[in-house]
Amino acid sequence: MLTESTFGHAAALWVGLNLLLLLVLSLLVVRQRQKHKVALGDDGIPELAQAIRAQGNAVEYIPAALIGLVVLEGTGAPGVLIHIGGLILLLGRVAHAIGLSNSGGISMLRTGGVVLTWLAYIFIIASCLFFSIG
């Protein structure tokens, strides 16, 4: 059960885990670049293009959501809300990255990842707006 002693730590957990995900995705891009000896761009190599987009898409979505979680925690919102938003976000980003890395086309993981990410955004938006008037 989450208690008052967890205040200030909830957002740190999700920031740390999402930064770890960004680091892993960056390393996967570097590994593909080294494997194919490509310094810039994707050189038309599908695996490299997919790795670049998986990392790029995470970079596009994760920072704003993490800002929302940190702001939400700053309002004094219950830690459980930060954990719910953080978990949905991380699951969505991991699913999307795996789905995109395994297929350049439509995949269940990629689609599910987008849906979870958007649900995390909606949850964080609604929570921030609710606690902004409290």
Fold and architecture overview:
- It is a single chain.
- The protein is mainly α and 134 residues long.
- The chain has one domain (8-132): Membrane associated eicosanoid/glutathione metabolism-like domain (Four Helix Bundle (Hemerythrin (Met), subunit A), Up-down Bundle).
- The protein is built from 4 helices and no strands.
- The chain has helices at residues 10-36, 46-74, 79-102, 108-132.
- Helix 2 (46-74) packs antiparallel against helix 3.
- The longest helix has 29 residues, at 46-74.
- The model is unreliable at 1-5 (pLDDT under 50).
Summarize the structure.
Helices cover 78% and strands 0% of the residues. It has helices at 10-36, 46-74, 79-102, 108-132.
Tell me the helix content: over 70%
> Which structural category do the helix and sheet elements fall into?
mainly alpha
* CATH homolog superfamily: Membrane associated eicosanoid/glutathione metabolism-like domain
CATH topology descriptor: Four Helix Bundle (Hemerythrin (Met), subunit A)
Series of H and E elements: HHHH
Return the CATH class: Mainly Alpha
- How many H/I helices? 4
* N-to-C CA distance: 24 Å
Strand content: under 5%
Secondary-structure map:
Layout: H1 10-36, H2 46-74, H3 79-102, H4 108-132
Helix pairs in contact: 1-2, 1-3, 2-3, 2-4, 3-4
